[in-house]
Amino acid sequence: MAADLDLAVNCGSSSIKFALYSTETRNVVVSGSASNVQGDAPASYKFSHSAGGKEQERTKELEASTSYEDVFREILKDVTSEDILGSEREKRIRLVAHRIVHGGTADAPILIRHGDKEEQEVLDRMEEVSSFAPLHNHHAMLIVKECLEHLPESYSVLCFDTLFHQTIPQYRRQYAISTPPHKTPVPLVKYGFHGLSYANILDQMAEELGKPKEQVNLVVAHLGSGGSCCLIQNGKSTQTTMGVTPLEGLPGGTRSGTVDPSLIFHHTPDCSETVKWSGRDITKGEYVLNKESGFKALCGTNNFGTIISRAYPSSSSPDDAPSNEEHMSSRLTYQLYLDHLLSFLAPYLSSVFSSQDNATLDGLVFSGGIGEKSAQLRRDVLEHFAWIERLASSGGGVDEARNEKGEGRREITKAGSRVRAWVVETSEEDEMIRMAEEELKKQGK
């Protein structure tokens, strides 16, 4: 049987998302995700499989000590099982598209296959770059190696989040710091991340608006456990909140976001010493700022839904009322997050409205787990910018019904709004497959 399937693998710091596509139709055959990988509780994964017009769902739990690679091996075994793909299952997967958070200086996806002479060189180079995104790149490269070994006839295509942001002007990429006396794996400039998500959102919004991508102007808030914002002008990234690593910018579930650089030396005096994390050496400073900060440090949980319910408890559920300490710490966390988010969105919106080519704002887009689910956060952001509607006498604003309820891609502001806001469910996996297929075609494979 000919290779007729494409696999997308999206590795997070403690999660693995995956989707198997038909090469011909791009329809999803199998999709799912693993959560709590290498966490304190047992890891689990679930996936759904379309067969005969019916959706079949499966769930499996694994021991808490199961390694990242072993979780993926279990996923791959089930996804490529004979009852799903048939007897020649290994030969049916043409390519595996991998989300790699940090691509360093790479200016295009990288294509490798087991046994290629460039294989080890690529793996070594990407391992060097992993120090700039230690929570993600290391895991992703472990899975690349697994796919090269267990799917040797398939191409592995490395799809980098950083590619989308290469259009950011140099004066915004440069840090006001001297060139280091030693050689670094990559230049110390802003790279930006979540690029696959932003590219997919741009595609979706261009389709929604019926405009060429090159004419679309967006301000996008990709808000999840790790979040960032991006200014897209004429279809290109011109500014984003993350920097040389994903730590800069917004606070997240366990990340500090932007802080005074001197803070870590006072908080963790031995911050330059190394600790083991997920089989890799990282500095204590990196570990504290990436894994022991953010929402969890402020209020004891990194679940934004829990934070909202504690910060603004419902009077109709007195039995579930938070303690006063939970209420106050969660309210502080929410207010801090909202303030940081507004501090990035405001100048991005201003950049569009004040541009010299009289550009229009096509949308303020909310995406990611928090952006898609938190109606209150969206409302509070838009109410902050209500002065723009009043100034323009537009009569716009939040459409409460559409903001509170609905699924999928939708506008959540009233007709005539100067700041048109949207909720867009992003698909990094779709973008990875599109990018990987284009790269294979470009190289004549």
List keywords for this structure.
445 residues, alpha+beta, 2 domains, 6-stranded mixed sheet, 16 helices, 16 strands, 36% helix
Structural commentary:
With 445 residues, the chain is α+β, with helices and mostly antiparallel strands. The chain has two domains: 5-166, 2-Layer Sandwich (Nucleotidyltransferase, domain 5); 210-257 and 293-428, ATPase, nucleotide binding domain (Nucleotidyltransferase, domain 5). Helix content is 36%, strand content 20%. It has 16 helices and 16 strands. It has helices spanning 68-79, 82-85, 119-129, 137-150, 170-173, 195-209, 263-267, 284-291, 294-299, 304-311, 324-353, 368-373, 375-384, 386-392, 400-404, 428-442, and strands at residues 5-11, 16-22, 28-35, 44-51, 54-61, 93-100, 110-112, 155-160, 218-222, 228-233, 236-240, 274-277, 280-283, 363-367, 410-411, 421-423. The strands form three sheets. Strands 5-4-3-2-1-6-8-7 form an eight-stranded mixed sheet, sandwiched between helices. A hairpin with a 2-residue loop joins strand 12 and strand 13 (280-283). Helix 1 packs across helix 4 (137-150), helix 3 runs antiparallel to helix 4 and helix 6 (195-209) packs across helix 16 (428-442). The longest helix has 30 residues, at 324-353. The chain is globular and about 65 Å long. The mean pLDDT is 92.
